[in-house]
Amino acid sequence: MFNSKIKTGLFLAILLCMSCQSENLYEEPENEVKMTLPEDAMATLNFLKDQGYLEEDLEPDLAREAFIYAEDMAIPFGLKPNLDKNVPDDAQKNQWYLSLYGVFYVNSRNITYYIDYDFPSEYILEFAWAAYHWSKVSPNININRTYSRYSADIVLGAYYNENTGAYATAALPSGNGNVGSWMQINVAKDHEALSAESRMTLMIHELGHNLSFLHSNQVEGIRIPGTSDAAFHQAYTCGSIMRSSVYVCGWQLSPWSQWSSDDWRSIGWSYGVY
Length: 274
Description:
The protein has 274 residues and is an alpha/beta fold. The protein has helices at residues 30-36, 39-50, 79-85, 124-137, 196-210, 230-235, 261-270, and strands spanning 2-3, 6-7, 58-61, 66-69, 73-76, 111-115, 143-145, 154-159, 168-171, 182-186. A hairpin with a 3-residue loop joins strand 4 (66-69) and strand 5.
């Protein structure tokens, strides 16, 4: 669902903490869903419902151990138990990311990513530029490539799903102080038809989810102080890189960034900016 230059029905948007709506693709009856979900997933499901999410919008993915929300965000089953176990003490609070999902600054200053064998080659350069832009916007974000899958913080891979508008899906943090652990490109989509700038902005958006930013035009979750409301981002296509349908909005494969004013506020509130 790429709109304009980037029409992607991906679930994209920024730590303005909100999430856009998607249709529920899970077809089992509600009682069967609850019977098949593990205990940690049920705890996270109830936690998300308390935050205003609708159960029918949270698609359980048992293979990836996550709820797929708004098609491109994966909320790990272990989120709630991990948040309960990893409450920062007073000495840590100045290092703890202020969003719902929790990332320690110390764990975002040296983030590594690993490119798996199935990650589409046409995204390697665009992802590197996305990592560059996130690393250059905040002193508490530093993203570099590693060739060790075992030690990587984020594993880049692929999946195939014709029944979604998403061009990619990324895991949100799991509540243990680290960033989201994976990002996958949906190879059922025609990525070669996209411009390089479209692919790069998609990667910036999905990396935003790994860093725990939600969609700027969603109504669930927490709104970052000082940012525009969901209605603004639903109407204004260039209001944030984290809008659920991403537009290029001036981004190019260059060192020059095009963060919006709401992007700056959101990143500054959560990680600090240069």
